[in-house]
Write a structure and sequence with these properties.
Chain lengths: 253, 246
């Protein structure tokens, strides 16, 4: 579980996060949504420890990231997995080497053990015939699967995804969303996803946090988001005529 | 000026960061060998080619300019040796390497920055500067080997051009090579080479690591890295010459 308490973060004189309080529970896909500039990337990076909060607390199962020493921070980081927007696979390594990288770095497993675990996650994310390929030789969807496999190979407790569907076609996006949700349920991971994608919001939004101008203005799930009358969220989520039509159909509003 | 001082400060902080939170030796060993292969072994061909022909040209130019019959011919060999050992091999090959090694280092690290690979290392709890720059720094310890080869092949080029081109007899060239030989000049050349190796590994890394933007900026960072690596080599060359030879 990740508890965020009154989190504030500024850059120079600009206050980006203005006191956010929320809780991300394990085994749930937690989504952060909001317009560009609403503070969601800063929020994700602060959760990851890339930015230091100005005030407030981030508790990872009770452990306050800011008060940990360097070793404890490093240990906590080994419990995190991250799927980057552009996958961020290492170009100089094959698919297998990319996935095995965290194990080589942070465990004392033998090469054979690493190979076995890598194959296990490759099978789990359904990557076919890609083991020895370089990242540049596989499609965007496959790259995302590799990124997910790399993020979960070391059995993380916390999984962070920054716009995992960016650049993917709608069908592949749904496949990736479902994969993240399945993995979250299966391994009881606390998953936090930063997204713009309304399909994801409606499909896998088990806990949704909506940010506007650095403030949390709405919290709920994919069912509640269909019913809400909150003007900010209605404006944001139902920005297209098609979505407005869907909402009318579902709620008669 | 303030920006320049800011960059110098950032560079010094980066040097300290390279040695913090070291990567596991099991991984680092492989990275060091990879960098030696890319940066050192991969440079040998171009260094050998340039050294041979520049050595030959230095000898021919010297022979053509020393046409006074009072001046002994063996001085051609002497001049070729001195120019190759003192300046051409350590300094000018290093500037050429600033283009070859420097652009490789800046563009590879810069591309990793643009494609969030450095962020990925950071999030995993890895010190990216140690992971990326330390192996290059260790590989640069073997850089004097490249310069030794350059000296040898440069002198060989001079020998071949001088004797086979009919400018002087082979024995005279060899006599010139041995004449008034000061072993400290070789030590001076290697001290310079070691410093240049350090500059070649760290300045381009700095420009790659701290670059911002996209693909276009990677190209710009490579150009900037080449310019500032060359400037650093030339200034360092002047300071070391002043300290060691005067």
């Amino acid at each position: 579980m990740i508890e965020v308490k009154n989190l504030k973060k500024s850059f120079d004189d600009k206050e980006v996060l203005k006191g956010i309080t929320t809780t991300y529970e394990p085994g749930k896909t937690n989504l952060i949504i909001g317009q560009s500039g609403s503070g969601k990337t800063v929020m994700l990076k602060t959760l990851l420890g890339v930015h230091e909060p100005d005030s407030g607390q981030i508790l990872f199962d009770g452990r306050d990231f800011a008060t940990l020493d360097a070793n404890e921070k490093r240990n906590l980081r080994t419990e995190m997995g991250m799927v980057f927007q552009g996958s961020a696979l290492f170009d100089s390594m094959t698919v297998e080497q990319n996935i095995g990288f965290p194990l080589k770095m942070f465990t004392n497993k033998s090469n054979a053990e690493i190979r076995d675990r890598v194959q296990e996650v490759i099978d789990r994310v359904k990557l076919v015939d890609a083991n020895t390929k370089m990242p540049s030789e596989i499609s965007g969807g496959m790259q995302k699967r590799v990124a997910i496999a790399r993020a979960i190979v070391n059995n993380p407790k916390y999984l962070f995804c920054d716009e995992p569907n960016s650049g993917l076609d709608p069908k592949t996006s749904i496949v990736i969303d479902e994969l993240i949700q399945e993995i979250t349920h299966e391994y009881q991971i606390t998953t936090v996803i930063n997204t713009h994608d309304m399909n994801s919001v409606l499909q896998i939004g088990e806990h949704i946090v909506f940010l506007k101008d650095g403030k949390l203005v709405w919290e709920g799930n994919s069912k509640e988001i269909m019913q809400t009358d909150n003007e900010d969220i209605v404006d944001f989520v139902y920005s297209s005529e098609l979505l407005k039509e869907i909402r009318r159909f579902h709620t008669n509003k | 000026m303030i920006k320049m001082l800011n960059n110098v400060g950032k560079y010094l902080i980066m040097l300290g960061e390279i040695f913090r939170r070291p990567t596991k030796w099991r991984i680092m060993k492989g990275l060091i060998f990879k960098e030696i292969d890319e940066l050192i072994i991969g440079s040998l061909g171009i260094v050998a080619f340039l050294s041979f022909f520049i050595g030959a040209v230095v000898t021919i130019q010297t022979a053509l300019n020393l046409n006074n019959p009072i001046i002994p011919k063996y001085l051609i060999g002497f001049t070729a040796r001195q120019s190759i050992i003192l300046e051409f091999s350590p300094t000018f090959i290093s500037i050429i390497m600033a283009g070859r090694m420097g652009s490789y280092i800046t563009s590879s690290i810069g591309t990793m920055r643009v494609t969030e690979q450095i962020d990925a290392l950071e999030v995993m709890g890895i010190n990216p500067l140690n992971y990326l720059v330390f192996p290059k720094l260790i590989a640069s310890i073997t850089y004097p080997f490249v310069i030794t080869l350059s000296m040898f092949i440069g002198i060989l080029g001079g020998y071949v051009a001088g004797s086979f081109g009919g400018y002087l007899a082979a024995e005279e060239f060899v006599k010139g090579l041995q004449d008034d030989f000061t072993p400290f000049h070789v030590i001076y050349a290697f001290i310079k080479t070691a410093c240049f190796g350090f500059i070649l590994a760290t300045v381009p890394s700095f420009y790659g690591y701290y670059m911002e933007g996209g693909a276009l900026e990677v190209g710009k960072a490579s150009t900037k890295a080449f310019v500032w690596t060359s400037v650093a080599i030339i200034v360092c060359n002047y300071i070391l010459t002043q300290i060691l030879l005067t």
